Amino acid sequence: MPGTLRFILDGELVELDRVEPTRSVLQYLREDLLRVGSKEGCAEGDCGACTVVIAELAGDALQYRAVNACIQFLPTLDGKALFTVESLKASDGSLHPVQQSLVDHHGSQCGFCTPGFVMSMFALYKNNPSPTRADIDDALSGNLCRCTGYRPIIDACMHMYDYPIAQDSDAQLVEQLRGLQRQQGMSLELEQASYHAPATVDELASLYQQNPTARILAGGTDVGLWVTKQLRELPLIIYLGNVKELKQISRQDGAIEIGAAVTLSDALDEIVGQFPELAEMFRRFASVPVRNAGTLVGNVANGSPIGDSMPALMVLDTRVKLRRGSRLREMALADLYLDYMKNALQAGEFIESIEIPAREDAILLRCYKLSKRFDQDISAVCMAIALRLDGDRVAEIRIALGGMAAIPKRAALAEACLRGEAWDEETVKRAMQQLGQDFTPLSDMRASADYRARAAANLLYRFFLETRPQQPLGAQAVNVFAVTG
Fold first, then answer.
1. Most-buried pick from 5, 26, 190, 464 (CB within 10 A)?
2. Where in the chain is the domain with CATH 3.10.20.30?
3. What's the pLDDT tens digit per position in 150-185?
């Protein structure tokens, strides 16, 4: 019913009618339910101590995903099922296989981070019956341990399938969730704050046009930090996650259209299927819990100068589809950003979807990420390049960078220097100099301006060495590496 939040916890229906829109799932668990297994370590989705698992319907099946409870707003649980570390123990008191494996392999010391690891392992257990070591590393990428070390935890992941299979009630949960699905939107009001979750894109467009100062909420991986770190008040929230049309990925003649509510996990998997050169880059894009909650279109709409998706999408010639009320328009993603955290969206207008064109014939594609750590680190420089040669000449080239300016953007001067010219060292070195005119980087905690400028030029040169017609370096399809100094 409208005005009541409904979700499943431990097989039981929970109904709440007085909910603060920005109250986090973690606050609700610890303060209201006294479920203190989930911990607050960072309040920004980095450490994983708060990890829980959310299950929702995906057709006739269940989709289990680990997320960070510290930045997940409680109302977004509507129509879903929530699992915490307390949920896993059987009625007879026996531990779940993931818990027992952690005990047997000595995967816990102080225990602060352990519940978060358990829940990331639980999601992996439900989704992948035979993970590789890389799958395990990826699944645990959002969980930090300061005392045990990761080897015994990884051992526990590798052996958690050795125990008797945990009994579950997926069929019953599917039926319960079916009964919670809404045909109409849901709204919550509490004092001076309100939360609206429209069910259709038409309802969303009308609501946002009437309330252009509202905060659009998708995954909350950025907006959640506004509340936990900046203590901002968000009096009016419009949530996209219940709009079925926006949760779709469509394909036509090789082109991919990704709706505004599609998670990063689903969107990046789809893109990598068409452009496998981006696989390593996207594996390093945040952590699994962040990718499970955040959306690709939300990352695009946010427009952070250090967002890693935009350079790759720009060189793929991605277009954004915008909507305001009943009016639709399109533009190139490269034209969306105007200045730092400013874009071309009008009041009451939102990004409905993005469209990535079909892969061009004979395209050479690379994406490079420079950062101090492999997992969960923000880029000092992110460069993507797409090149099409006509013999030994440049028929088309697109170069985009993040971390180099107030906005992610194309390197227009360097591109113009190369287009139509011979793909040789002399031409490339001229383009490397032009990059200095395209960007005026700044110095910060991640890298100096000089480092960024030199690194960007050298990445372009590296791309040339890997793709030159004679004696290419023979590098792997993707070359992503970390800053070592």
1. 26
2. 5-86+170-239
3. 999 999 999 999 998 877 779 999 999 999 999 999
